[in-house]
């Protein structure tokens, strides 16, 4: 048996909802009505006849009628929504421009970050990355500097006119991180932390959502819909590879999945080659293939002294290596028609 979902816009009146209810009741259909973020949905657990579907589709405030509650609604480009620009701080990211985000894995100290920021800025980087709340596999690894890190990060970003992206691990940290950061990062491990996603849907800042290393594209997009359905449309997806079986590589980046993602959603999609490669020697290869495969940008870990980095030391590019990579990206950009940075 098919189920149907009727998505109702957030501005609907009680009477408009009652009108839909009447049609469903008249046809003796089982349904429940529930909130889906700021919007609401009717979930009908039976087939609805074609004429009723058409009637409902034309009703006021009905946004979409879709078969099967696991289908994509808000992230899908099937309903006429197009990729446009994204407002980041006071800057409009025209999403056909190839975005560069770079910086250390974690914020460590002001002097080092200043060195990184000054150099990456010259290469066209718009956004300085660096976590102050770090999701580490071991509780004995460096967990980030917390608010002290956010303060350093913000200070350095302001000094060089860079935007700031920082990760939020827990819903309770969202207000604090939002005070400082221009973009909120939700990491791979939290991709299905639904309370965090819903809270991120209520803020007025872009959210970078990273794909979990064990999730499908569909689960990834449905996770993004938790943010979208709360009213925040400023979502950027980040592909960072999924776990494979072969320890020779860290997280597998599949250009075909990236293409599939771009064909399915109107949301911009960037690629993080650092967490995919897990080794600085392979970051460039993945970065370049992401560019030719249609990514909208890259997020890359860069450190002034990678060997001394307190987290992800193996995969961080030296500033010189990053410079060389950006040169290569510029050459490829000319061929594929993308402006880098
Ligand atoms: C990161 O970007 O620093 C990070 C922890 O990445 P991921 O969530 O993809 O593992
Ligand atoms: Mn990292």
Taking pLDDT < 50 over at least 5 consecutive residues as the criterion, the unreliable ranges are none
- Care to count the β-strands? 17
Percentage of helical residues?
25-40%
Strand content is: 15-25%
The radius of gyration computed from the alpha-carbon positions, rounded to a whole number of angstroms, is 22 Å
Bound molecules: phosphoenolpyruvate, manganese (II) ion
Mean pLDDT: 94
Tell me the series of helices and strands, N- to C-terminal: EHEEHEEEEHEHEHEHEHEEEHEHHEHE
Instruction: Please give the largest β-sheet.
Output: 9 strands, parallel
Describe the structure.
This protein has 341 residues and is α/β, with parallel strands linked by helices. Helices cover 35% and strands 21% of the residues. The protein contains 11 helices and 17 strands. It has helices spanning 14-26, 50-57, 110-122, 147-160, 174-180, 194-200, 217-228, 255-264, 273-277, 280-292, 319-336; strands spanning 4-8, 31-36, 39-44, 62-67, 85-88, 91-94, 97-103, 127-128, 163-167, 183-186, 207-210, 235-239, 242-243, 251-252, 269-271, 297-301, 339-340. Strands 7, 8, 9, 10, 11, 12, 15, 16 and 17 form a 9-stranded parallel β-sheet that branches. Helix 6 packs across helix 7 (217-228). It is elongated and about 70 Å long. The model has no long low-confidence stretch (mean pLDDT 94). Phosphoenolpyruvate binds at residues 105, 131, 135, 187-189, 210, 240, 272, 275.
């Amino acid at each position: 048996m098919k189920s149907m979902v009727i998505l109702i816009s957030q501005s609907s009146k009680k009477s408009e909802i009652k009108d839909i209810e009447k049609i469903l009741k008249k046809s003796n259909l089982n349904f429940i009505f529930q909130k889906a973020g700021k919007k609401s949905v009717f979930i009908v657990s039976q087939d609805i006849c074609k004429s009723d579907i058409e009637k409902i589709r034309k009703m006021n405030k009905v946004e979409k009628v879709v078969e099967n509650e696991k289908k994509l609604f808000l992230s899908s480009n099937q309903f006429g929504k197009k990729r446009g620009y994204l407002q980041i701080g006071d800057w409009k990211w025209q999403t056909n421009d190839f975005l560069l985000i770079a910086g250390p894995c974690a914020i460590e100290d002001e002097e080092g970050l200043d060195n990184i920021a000054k150099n990456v800025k010259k290469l066209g980087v718009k956004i300085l990355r660096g976590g102050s709340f770090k999701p580490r596999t071991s509780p004995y690894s460096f967990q980030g500097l917390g608010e002290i890190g956010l303060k350093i990060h913000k200070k350095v970003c302001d000094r060089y006119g860079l935007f700031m992206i920082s990760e939020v691990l827990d819903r309770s940290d969202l207000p604090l991180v939002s005070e400082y950061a221009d973009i909120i990062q939700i990491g791979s491990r939290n991709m299905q932390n639904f309370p965090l996603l819903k809270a991120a849907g209520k803020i007025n800042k872009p959210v970078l959502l990273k794909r979990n290393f064990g999730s499908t594209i569909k689960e990834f997009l449905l996770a993004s819909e938790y943010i979208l359905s709360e009213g925040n449309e400023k979502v950027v997806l980040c592909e960072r590879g999924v776990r494979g079986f072969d320890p020779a590589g860290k997280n597998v980046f599949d250009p075909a999945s990236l293409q599939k993602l771009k064909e399915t959603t109107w949301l911009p999609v960037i690629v993080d080659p650092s967490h995919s490669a897990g080794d600085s020697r392979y970051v460039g290869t993945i970065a370049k293939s992401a560019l030719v495969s249609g990514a909208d940008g890259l997020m890359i870990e860069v450190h002034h002294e990678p060997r001394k980095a307190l987290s992800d030391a193996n995969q961080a590019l030296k500033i010189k290596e990053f410079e060389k990579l950006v040169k290569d990206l510029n050459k490829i950009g000319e061929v594929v028609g993308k402006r880098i940075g």
